[in-house]
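Quarterly update, task 2.4: iron/sulfur cluster-bound model.
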Amino acid sequence: MNNAVVYFEPLSNKSTIDKTVVAIDNIFNRIDTSFSKKDMIAIKTHFGEEKNDTHIAPKIINKIVDKLIELNVNPFLTETSTLYAGARDNAIKHLKLAYRHGFTPQNIKAPIIMADGLLGDLEIEVKIDGILNKSVKIARDAVLSDGFVVLSHPTGHIVAGFGACLKNLGMGLSSKKGKLVQHSSIKPKIISRNCINCGMCKKWCPADAIIEKDNKMFILEDKCIGCGECLAVCKYSAVKFNWGVGSVELQKNIAEYALGAIKNKRDKCIFINVLTNMTKECDCMDKKQKPTIPDVGILASNDPVAIDQATLDLTEEANGIDLGKKSYPKLDPNIQLDHAQKIGLGVRQYKLERLK
Ligand code: SF4
Ligand code: SF4
């Protein structure tokens, strides 16, 4: 199996946004871009949940837009609606939030197009040769785009242990129905003997799946969308997941959905991971977070598996422990990488090219 190349531009901890923009510029000059003139290129990113302020900054994303304009292609930013109710669960709310976070026409020289339409149901069933899925439900305008720049912010993840490029592709480019399929095996339960009935899980559950009966909390399985929010907010270890099944299946599904998301444009994809402001929880969590490990730098590759492998390796090299293990020691993010390699999405072995 051939090695992939991953380019690495190191950054010192807490570098300024301007230094990060320069690093993006350098790394973009090295990566192989095989776009054709006038191609419609989707920049897949994440605008951050309402209170999140550690997502990738607009100025950094605009640098990618500039680089694509220099290549004479037509870039646009793209995202999809969340499965759970919140500030990003339809296109209008999501775009308003993007504006509040600075992704405005004044700051970004490219339009934002929600790939799954107004309500998150615009999808194309893409056939894949997966192990769990023979087809996946991908946001329509992601499929219709000619190529991708997938700009990801690696973080820990409450169910997968770690999320970066593969998660941005697989979860981030699926329709709502596709997201539901990926979460379907995660069914949390409330352990009554640990529960003090504080009500936090009920308050935060985005699917109204938690009810109180006879002073006890219960999760309604048919309403639960497996988002993990109840686990994150319970301070009394009263919410339990079946991690064995939930995390493994979610990670494998993410890898298979990622395969479907880039199926018709595998040769026209650039993957960039921004290893700064890396937090324990992902940018979907509606709270401010402090970085859990120091900044590392910027990675770029044409291989989505190699870039996530390099993210784990370089965070371990810099900190003695990788981002996944540091965030969720009991979860194993190698599952998504192994599975992605097994289904032919990319390779875990890579050659690292340090740019300075
Ligand atoms: S947050 Fe935890 S302790 Fe509070 S009601 Fe929910 S399960 Fe019980
Ligand atoms: S995982 Fe928890 S918070 Fe999320 S939908 Fe299910 S019960 Fe609600």
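Highlight for this quarter: The two ends are 28 Å apart (CA to CA).
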